[in-house]
Each structure stands twice: as C-alpha cells, then as structure tokens.
C-alpha cells in the first residue's frame, strides 16, 4: 500500500472540510472494498477520511412512514435490526448474505451505495424499494442515483449520509453468489409496494443495476413464483465473463426472482441456515 | 504517522505507526502477537480474524489507525477468564478440527463470534457452514471444524446454564 494520511471525522461537516483540504482524498467507510483496492495499489489516495464514527450516520430509525438507514450502518447491524427484520425482511436477508460475517461487521450501506459495484447487493434493494439516497446536500431517487459501473451522480466531495424508503408490503431477495468472491452473479430484489411490484437486478447488467419490468408485470397479476414460469429475460446488455455467459445470467435472473418471491411470501427459498436473532451475550 | 492507542488483550498499548499500517501488522510486528496470521492478504481467508470491540473482523483489511481507541482481543487471549483453554479451543482439539493449524486462530475467533451472534447452543450444521464462508482451511475439508464449533456451542450453553444456576 502506498503512503496515505488517515483522518477521523466526527461530523459530516468536518469530513467535507477535511476532504477540501486534501490533494487526492477518499472517504473511508467500512473499507472492505477501498482497503483491499489500496493494498493492490489500484487506488492510492493522499488522504483517507474515516466516516465510520459520525454519530449522525449511524443506525436505523423511522421518520413518519419512512425507514431511514444511516450511511455508516454496517451490513450486520442492518441484518439484525428489529425494524428492518419486521418491515423490510428482504433487505435484512440481503444484508445477511453480503460477503462473510467479518466483512458484514465492517462494511456499510453508505460505502456500498456510493461505490456502486455492479455486483454489489444493495443497489438492487434501493431501486426495488424506490429508495431515496440522502447526501450531505441533496436527496436523489435511487433510479437516478446509479448511473453505470462504479458510477453515481455523486459530486466530488459529496457524502452518502443515508438511505430512506417506505416499508414495502412484501420484500425478498434471491442471490446466486460467485463461488469464490461471494458477489452476486445475479441478485434479484423483489418489493411489493403500494404502487405495484418492483424488481431490480444486480450483478448481471453490463451497465450495472436495472429493473426487470417484464417480471414486474407478471408479478403484479399474480405475486407467486409460478407467475414467473416460462418468463424469459433478453440477454442483450447482460454481462458475460468466464463465470457465466449473458444467456446463463438471463436464466439466473428468472430463477433468483422466483427465490425472492418465495422468500417474500414467507417461504424458505434456498438456505437451511438460520437468521441471527440479534446479538446474544456469551 | 499516527499515534494509535488500543487495549489489546486487556493491556493498553500506544505506538506511533505509519498511517498505512494494517491492524494485523500492528499486532504482529509492534506487539509480537504472532498468533494472528496473514494468509491470503486479500480478505478472503480469515486467518487474521480478531475481535474488535467484541465483533470479529479481518485485521488484514483494517488500518491500525481505524482501530484507534478500540478494544482488540486476539487468539492469545481467547482463553482469558477460563481455567483452561476456551471451550472452542478444547473442542478443536477434541474433534481434530485442525491439521497444519495455520487457519486455526482465525477459525477459533470466528467460531467464538458465531456463538456470540446466535447464542450458545443455537447453532446447527447449515448455519455453521454458512457462517464459515469467510474462513478457508486447506487441510481438514471443514467437517471436523464444523463438528468442533457445534460441540463448543453446546458446551458453552451448558456452562452458561451452570453459571446462571450458580447465580440464582
């Protein structure tokens, strides 16, 4: 790793000021992507500004009918949070399947959303839940926020301070992880909202996360996995690599959408492992 | 350079290190706590797992400066508070949960964290296997590691009951 200077911010304003005073700064949240990237010397920021200790960016809360998650909230805290487990169980399930337990203790939703890795899980939930991404100076609808591979509308120095969404009536996620990296080769988030069913796909699109409107239509008529029988996804615009061809990913999307619907309907789609009930003392 | 102050295994330590120093190198090179290993160095293998403020983390992917002010427990102190080894360590010995032993410190720390998260006695085989996603072992094929963690979880539930009964 190249030399860098570490700074710890205690407020959003302080973080922004620290970034303004640096030549090539990067915000550091959980660091589960940025630090490995720096170790490979693919990134060499002059300054790291740690956002993990900013109180205003921690935890899950409710504002009226909106559920708000602070940007510095870890995947583990989201997966085990009572509000998320009861009101958006699909998101709790998704968070509990990111990386591994140690990564989930450090990695944060704000960092993941700002990074917009095309195989990251959260972008699919944000779009399916019709979430709003909150930054230090504006609110952006998720569908406008994610603009391409590792690309968002974030300006230089702008911070994702949190995300907010209305509790869906039902939600579920299906993920086919790459056996080595555990990133999604196809991840499908299904949310049944007051405005209809929304289906968003990560890990498969050539240009990052996208909505699968054909699947949405089928699920609006009948919110069951069998409603997707025989449905197909056009493989044009899907990613192809040594792990899976675009055609295989197209098939995976329908299969993962079915699992997501099974989960949303209270079934057990693919795993025999229990969900952590929260933090128990030993 | 950053001044880093940590409580490591119950002992307060202070060092001035380069900002890029990883927590695992801080533990191994500055404190001579070489039980925590560096395996893959890419956050895949889990031999570097320690507890930071009570939660298992991969110390190869955290800067020492990020950990400043926190409490760290490494494999060297896993047994603190027990007369003998920690039940997780005993179970790994009993069930032959190691061969070369390189991954074992990380496995033990991850196993203890698993029991903390799910509660003693609340683990089943599928849950253990899923939660071992971040720890790689090249020798055992995992079967005996899974058995050891399950046995330790049950053992910890028993000793918890005994402790509760003693307290009543």
From TrEMBL, chain A:
Keywords: FAD, Flavoprotein, Oxidoreductase. Transmembrane segments: none annotated. The keyword Ribonucleoprotein does not apply. Residues 1-170 form the FAD-binding PCMH-type domain. One of its GO terms (molecular function) is oxidoreductase activity. Pfam families: FAD_binding_5. It comes from the Bacteria. This is Carbon monoxide dehydrogenase. The lineage of its organism: Bacteria, Pseudomonadati, Pseudomonadota, Alphaproteobacteria, Hyphomicrobiales.
From TrEMBL, chain B:
Keywords: 2Fe-2S, Iron, Iron-sulfur, Metal-binding, Oxidoreductase. Pfam families: Fer2 (PF00111), Fer2_2 (PF01799). The keyword Repeat does not apply. This is Carbon monoxide dehydrogenase. It comes from the Bacteria. PROSITE patterns: 2FE2S_FER_1, 2FE2S_FER_2. InterPro entries: 2Fe-2S-bd (IPR002888), 2Fe-2S-bd_dom_sf (IPR036884), 2Fe-2S_ferredoxin-like_sf (IPR036010), 2Fe-2S_ferredoxin-type (IPR001041), 2Fe2S_fd_BS (IPR006058), Beta-grasp_dom_sf (IPR012675), Diverse_Oxidoreductases (IPR051452). One of its GO terms (molecular function) is 2 iron, 2 sulfur cluster binding. Residues 2-78 form the 2Fe-2S ferredoxin-type domain. SUPFAM superfamilies: 2Fe-2S ferredoxin-like (SSF54292), CO dehydrogenase ISP C-domain like (SSF47741). The keyword Aminoacyl-tRNA synthetase does not apply.
């Amino acid at each position: 790793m190249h030399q860098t200077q570490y700074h710890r911010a205690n407020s959003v304003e302080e973080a922004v000021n620290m970034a303004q005073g640096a030549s090539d700064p990067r915000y550091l949240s959980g660091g589960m992507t940025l630090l490995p990237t720096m170790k490979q010397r693919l990134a060499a920021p002059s300054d790291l500004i740690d956002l993990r200790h900013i109180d205003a960016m921690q935890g899950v809360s409710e504002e009226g009918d909106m559920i708000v998650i602070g940007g510095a909230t870890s995947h583990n805290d989201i997966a085990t949070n009572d509000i998320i487990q009861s009101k958006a169980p699909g998101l709790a399930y998704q968070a509990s399947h990111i990386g591994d337990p140690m990564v989930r203790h450090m990695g944060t939703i704000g960092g993941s959303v700002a990074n917009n890795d095309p195989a990251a899980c959260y972008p699919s939930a944000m779009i399916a839940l019709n979430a709003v991404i909150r930054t230090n100076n504006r609110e952006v609808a998720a569908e406008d926020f994610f603009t391409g591979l590792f690309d968002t509308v974030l300006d230089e120095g702008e911070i994702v301070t949190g995300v907010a969404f209305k509790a869906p009536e039902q939600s579920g996620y299906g993920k086919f992880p790459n056996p080595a990296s555990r990133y999604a080769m196809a991840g499908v988030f299904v949310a049944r909202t007051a405005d209809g069913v929304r289906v968003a796909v990560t890990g498969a699109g050539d240009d990052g996360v996208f909505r699968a409107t054909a699947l949405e239509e089928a699920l609006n008529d009948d919110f069951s996995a069998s409603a997707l029988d025989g449905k197909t996804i056009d493989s044009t615009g899907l990613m192809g690599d040594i792990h899976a061809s675009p055609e295989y990913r197209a098939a995976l999307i329908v299969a993962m959408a079915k699992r997501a619907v099974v989960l949303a309907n209270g079934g057990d789609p693919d795993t025999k492992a229990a969900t952590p009930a929260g933090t128990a003392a030993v | 350079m950053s001044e880093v102050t940590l409580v490591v295994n119950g002992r307060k330590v202070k060092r001035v290190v380069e900002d890029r120093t990883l927590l695992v190198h801080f533990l191994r090179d500055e404190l001579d706590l070489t039980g925590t290993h560096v395996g893959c160095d890419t956050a895949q293998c889990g031999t570097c797992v320690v507890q930071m403020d009570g939660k298992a983390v991969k110390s190869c992917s955290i800067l020492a400066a990020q950990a400043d002010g926190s409490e760290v427990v490494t494999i060297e102190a896993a047994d603190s508070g027990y007369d003998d080894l920690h039940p997780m360590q005993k179970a790994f010995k009993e069930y032959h949960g190691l061969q070369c032993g390189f991954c074992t410190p990380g496995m033990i720390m991850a196993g203890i964290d698993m029991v903390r998260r799910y509660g003693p006695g609340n683990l089943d085989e599928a849950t253990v296997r899923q939660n071992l996603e971040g720890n790689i072992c090249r020798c055992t094929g995992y079967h005996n590691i899974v058995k050891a963690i399950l046995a330790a979880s049950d053992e910890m539930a028993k000793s918890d009951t005994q402790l509760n009964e003693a307290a009543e």
